[in-house]
Write a structure and sequence with these properties.
The complex is a heterodimer of chains A (about 210) and B (about 70). Chain A is mainly alpha-helical. Helices cover about 55% and strands about 0% of the residues of chain A. In chain B, helix 1 (about 1-10) crosses helix 4, helix 2 packs antiparallel against helix 3 (about 40-45) and helix 2 runs antiparallel to helix 4 (about 50-70). Classes of the chains: A mainly alpha (about 210), B mainly alpha (about 70).
Chain lengths: ~210, ~70
């Protein structure tokens, strides 16, 4: 709320609301001045409010406490915020550079249409939560029944871990599995490699799954 | 053109402007809710329903001004 876009939204909305309320209460004759005032109150200033609230909303949807605000995500959020947690996602969330937007940083699709596709996927989460019944589910049921819609793409990891540094290319497993990693047949985030991202939400079988081919 | 002007002359400008103001206030309220609460439903509402209300309010305003101008033509 205290971001510049949030403040601009609140300030511009207040000004526009005052103009509209004044028109509703005073009911002035439609003179040129009143038209101009209504143009400001119904078009110009609300346009600023709409743009700033959209910018605020788009940024807000990248913040991890936004993702964690649905009850089925509370354990994911508390794991990320636990400084002692050694899960793959938690270790990434401890990084100050990506921590505040940890969910978005790792789960956003990349590429030309990555941004709108990620937002569409996010809308499907909202749909599933409010209209698909997830809001009434217990955490235990959610952890037992819900998995990512598609296998986690290694390309998302490789946005940062590009594979060009020696610390990556000197690891013999990376070299041996280069083709499988490229084709997503082996997941970086699998047991046996770097471990699953959210271990508390997995079954014992999944945790002991080994390298997935 | 004359038909359109006659149609605009019958447009209830005052009522439409008041409706536009109410819709505009609703749109602004939804946008503010999205910022204040910052949870999924208010944020999605502020980026969708609120903007729909705002567009309708704007259209009502434009039609009302056009109707007012048309009614003052000799």
């Amino acid at each position: 709320m205290t971001t510049p876009f949030g403040v601009l939204t609140l300030a511009s909305a207040a000004v526009a609301a005052l103009i509209l309320l004044h028109h509703l209460v005073a009911r002035p004759a439609l003179t040129a001045t009143v038209r101009l005032r209504l143009l400001l109150g119904l078009a110009v200033i609300p346009f600023i409010t709409a743009v700033s609230s959209t910018a605020y909303g788009l940024h807000r949807t990248t913040e991890r406490d936004f993702c964690g605000s649905c009850h089925v995500m509370t354990t994911h959020l508390s794991d990320l915020e636990d400084p002692k947690s050694q899960g793959l996602a938690a270790r990434h969330a401890h990084n100050a550079a990506t921590g505040p937007t940890a969910c978005y940083t790792c789960h956003a699709d990349y590429g030309l249409f990555g941004y709108p596709l990620t937002k569409l996927t996010g809308m499907s989460h909202v749909w599933n939560y409010y209209l698909g019944g997830y809001s009434g589910w217990s955490l235990e049921r959610f952890h037992a029944e819900v998995r990512t819609a598609k296998p986690y793409p290694n390309a998302n990891c490789r946005q940062c871990h590009s594979g060009t540094l020696a610390s990556f290319s000197n690891v013999k497993e990376h070299v041996a599995l280069a083709e499988e990693l490229e084709q997503n047949r082996v997941s970086c985030a699998s047991a046996g490699c770097h471990g699953v991202a959210h271990p508390f939400s997995k079954t014992k079988d999944e945790l002991a799954g080994g390298v997935t081919r | 053109m004359k038909g359109l002007l006659r149609l605009l002359a019958r447009w209830p400008s005052d009522k439409a402007l008041r409706a536009a103001c109410v819709l505009g206030l609703g749109a602004l309220a939804l946008m503010v809710l999205g910022v204040v609460y910052g949870t999924p439903l208010p944020v999605v509402g502020s980026m969708s329903v609120a903007q729909g209300f705002g567009v309708v309010a704007c259209l009502l305003f434009g039609l009302s001004i056009a109707a007012d101008v048309a009614s003052r033509r000799p």
